[in-house]
Amino acid sequence: MSVDPSDFKRLFTVDEANATLPLVSAICSDMSELSQSLLERRERLAHLAGRRAAAGKTDRSDPYLEELAQVEEDLNNESQRLQEYVTELQDLGVEPKDGPKGLVDFPSMMDGRVVFLCWQLGEPEVLYWHEVEEGFPGRQPLTADSAADSSAGDDSFDGLGGE
């Protein structure tokens, strides 16, 4: 499957991806924390709603009904905030992949085809890439030649060098 480079807002070299990491890392940190919190809270809410239903507490006189409605509203508001983080990354040209893990991809070119430079929260820099179709399980380390080519400032550098 061939991916058209014009499908992406921009294509990154390794150096360009690494240059954006301070901002991307801050966004991903906030996104990861919020994603994990939302997942835990949604599970808890589903559990409580299930317990209420099992106990037959479905009438409007239930004193916890208002509190549950408030929790749901708060979760919806935080879900909107999470979407804002996703949009912020997309506006930078970065592809968010996993909120709780803080996993993102940077579209790049290698040997005339689009690939993803892959970065995850906690990694010091962009160290991996993968084919578009393979995703995270197909991550491969960038080569030393890639880093040397990238820092040379060669305008023909395609993001990863040849392999």
Topology:
Layout: H1 14-54, H2 65-92, E1 95-98, E2 103-110, E3 113-120, E4 128-131, E5 140-141, H3 144-151
Helix pairs in contact: 1-2
Features:
alpha+beta, 163 residues
Summarize the structure in words.
- Helix 1 (14-54) runs antiparallel to helix 2.
- Strands 1-2-3-4-5 form a 5-stranded antiparallel beta sheet.
- Mean pLDDT is 84; it is low at 146-163.
- The longest helix is centred in the first third of the chain and has 41 residues, at 14-54.
- The radius of gyration is 21 Å and the shape is elongated.
- It is an alpha+beta fold and 163 residues long.
- It has one domain (8-151).
- The chain has helices at residues 14-54, 65-92, 144-151, and strands at residues 95-98, 103-110, 113-120, 128-131, 140-141.
- It has 3 helices and 5 strands, in the order H-H-E-E-E-E-E-H.
Number of helices: 3
List segments where confidence is low: pLDDT < 50 over at least 5 consecutive residues: 146-163
Helical amount? 40-55%
| Helix and strand run | HHEEEEEH
Largest sheet: 5 strands, antiparallel
